[in-house]
Specification:
Elements: H1 2-23, H2 26-34, H3 55-58, E1 68-73, E2 75-77, E3 88-92, E4 105-108, E5 114-118, E6 129-133, E7 143-144, E8 172-174
Parallel strand pairs: 2-8
Antiparallel strand pairs: 1-5, 3-4, 3-6, 6-7
This protein binds heme C (2 copies).
One heme C is lined by residues 32, 35, 44-46, 48-50, 52, 54, 56-58, 63-66, 71, 73, 114, 116.
């Protein structure tokens, strides 16, 4: 009797451990929990978590159900965290970039400065070249990332404050207000 019981317990325990191995990834779980709880003032959706590495949660491994291929946040200025909406984020992957006729893919930032592409709308062939413009900004305004994005579609994996050896800082559109679209 006693022997049978321990076999059952052992079997249940090993099934549980296998399940744990299949789903759990402590590094991923730690990354997600380090990002903290939702801001109660912002609904969970397109405007949430500006500046965070979106694909920590939207990378296909949860906890978000929807998966993105590339996503990030554009702020207005170098030293402030006001978002800039209406920024056209142009992405040219390794198929589009060498082709002089290819315009790549454009996506636009929303009121939180966030942009995102679901995996089923765009699956980039890395590396990806990035350019920012805005339809009503002064001529010559905008930014180019001179290096390219090698494999991580979450801009904020590299771009976060403070600026330092770990990061070029948050993504911003202009060095001073004269480079911003009117009324920003
Ligand atoms: C800590 C985890 C986490 C982070 C980081 C995160 N999200 Fe989400 N997001 C969620 C969850 C959970 C939902 C609920 C809906 C779901 O499961 O897809 C959601 C929903 C959304 C939705 C609505 C569903 C959809 O696909 O249209 C959008 C849009 C979205 N997030 C954008 C973003 C953007 C942009 C960023 C980065 C600036 C971001 N999220 C960062 C967890 C996260
Ligand atoms: C692998 C790390 C990494 C990722 C991921 C990354 N960047 Fe960058 N980015 C950099 C570095 C480093 C620089 C500074 C040197 C340069 O311009 O190449 C930079 C520069 C930039 C600049 C120019 C900044 C300036 O003031 O001139 C922009 C704009 C930019 N990135 C946007 C983005 C966007 C949008 C994404 C996501 C689609 C992204 N980056 C993803 C590392 C990264």
């Amino acid at each position: 009797m006693r022997a049978n019981l321990s076999i059952v317990v052992l079997a249940a325990l090993s099934a549980f451990m296998m399940l744990g191995n299949a789903c759990g990834d402590p590094v991923h779980d730690d990354l997600v929990s380090a990002l903290g709880a939702e801001n109660p003032k912002v609904p969970t959706g397109p405007l949430h978590r500006p500046g965070q590495p979106c694909m920590a949660c939207h990378g296909g491994r949860g906890p978000a159900k929807s998966a993105f291929s590339m996503a990030g946040t554009v702020f207005a200025l170098i030293d402030k965290t006001d978002p800039l909406s209406g920024v056209v984020v142009n992405l040219k992957d390794s198929v589009a970039y060498p082709d002089p006729n290819s315009k790549g893919i454009d996506t636009t930032t929303n009121a939180a400065g966030n942009f995102f592409l679901h995996s089923d709308e765009f699956t980039p062939a890395y590396p990806v070249h990035v350019k920012l413009s805005h339809p009503t900004a002064p001529a010559g305004a905008g930014k180019v990332m001179y290096s390219h994005v090698g494999r991580d579609g979450s801009c904020a994996s590299c771009h976060h404050d403070p600026v330092g050896t770990e990061s070029p800082g948050h993504i911003y559109f202009a060095d001073d207000p004269s480079g911003l679209p009117p009324s920003q």
